[in-house]
């Protein structure tokens, strides 16, 4: 198992994974220049350069800031990433370069879309982390305020007041859309490691048959007290319905 490259799924930030499990696998780098590169895996088959990847994220954020309400973006959400990509400067750049081999161009376009989804997922995680940090600051400030006023927590006046935003429990990161991009850039000796119970169960519904892995080998990097390791495989046809872009079934690990 030590010859395999283990990559966390679906999260690309350590803040979403329990501290004891963070170093059990690498986090996927969607193509950005990161300071903490040791904990990240950068696929060699990514299409966009770090500069282009950063520009794409900035362009998406700038686009999103035009709307006061998320519902105002519903129309653009229905268009899908194909049409959104067509409107970006990266698409214009590709057209200026010109068309080459049709099959090669098709795969290149597919890889660009996949990387863009990863970049959007990464950016969404960053925003959630920022909001959680703000939430923590609000909690601390409110606690200090209560102490200064000598307010008891069970006082009726404050009982129905909350300044805590349960972002982590309410937001849907849409990990299903990231499964294919992860699989597309996964190396041949790569496995995705899933520690989220809900994701594990959803993958089982998609056809993954989780089988318990024997970790009696001394010094196994995946050996964690109180946790069991399961292996599973998701057939490539589940993700690549056209049968053009994925060459191997998706190998998975689950820590339960």
In short:
The chain is of the alpha/beta class. It is built from 8 helices and 7 strands; from the N terminus they run βββαααααααβαβββ.
Overview of the molecule:
With 256 residues, the protein is an alpha/beta fold. It has one domain. 44% of the residues lie in helices and 11% in strands. The protein contains eight helices and seven strands; from the N terminus they run βββαααααααβαβββ. The strands form two sheets. The protein has a five-stranded mixed β-sheet with strand order 1-4-7-6-5. Helix 1 crosses helix 4 and helix 4 packs across helix 7. The longest helix is centred in the middle third of the chain and has 48 residues. The two termini are 18 Å apart.
Principal-axes shape call: globular
Element string (H = helix, E = strand): EEEHHHHHHHEHEEE
Helix content: 40-55%
Number of strands: 7
Which segments are poorly predicted (pLDDT under 50) over 5 or more consecutive residues?
73-81, 155-170
Q: Compute the gyration radius: what is it?
A: 21 Å
Strand residues, percent: 5-15%
Strand order of the largest sheet: 1-4-7-6-5
The biggest sheet, with number of strands, parallel, antiparallel or mixed sense and barrel status, is: 5 strands, mixed
Overall number of structural domains: 1
> Count of DSSP helices?
8
Given the helix and strand composition, which structural class is it? alpha/beta
End-to-end CA span = 18 Å
Mean pLDDT: 76
């Amino acid at each position: 198992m030590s010859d395999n490259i283990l990559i966390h799924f679906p999260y690309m930030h350590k803040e979403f994974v329990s501290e004891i499990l963070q170093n059990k696998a690498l986090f996927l780098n969607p193509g950005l220049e990161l300071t903490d590169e040791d904990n990240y895996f950068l696929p060699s088959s990514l299409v966009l350069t770090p500069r282009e990847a950063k520009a794409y994220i900035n362009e998406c954020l700038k686009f999103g800031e035009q709307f006061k309400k998320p519902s105002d973006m519903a129309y653009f959400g229905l268009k899908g990433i194909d049409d959104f990509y067509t409107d970006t400067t990266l698409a214009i750049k590709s057209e200026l370069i010109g068309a080459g081999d049709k099959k090669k161009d098709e795969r290149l376009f597919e890889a660009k879309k996949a990387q863009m989804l990863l970049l959007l997922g990464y950016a969404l995680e960053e925003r959630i982390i920022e909001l959680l940090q703000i939430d923590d600051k609000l909690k601390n400030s409110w606690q200090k305020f209560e102490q200064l006023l000598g307010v008891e927590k069970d006082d009726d006046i404050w009982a129905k007041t909350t300044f805590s935003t349960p972002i982590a429990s309410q937001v849907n990161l849409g990990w299903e859309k990231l499964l294919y991009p992860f699989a597309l850039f996964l190396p041949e000796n790569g496995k995705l490691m899933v520690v989220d119970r809900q994701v594990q169960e959803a993958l089982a519904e998609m056809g993954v048959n989780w089988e318990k892995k024997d970790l009696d080998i001394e010094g196994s990097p995946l050996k964690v007290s109180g946790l069991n390791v399961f292996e599973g495989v998701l057939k490539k046809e589940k993700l690549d319905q056209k049968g053009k872009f994925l060459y191997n079934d998706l190998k998975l690990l689950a820590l339960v």
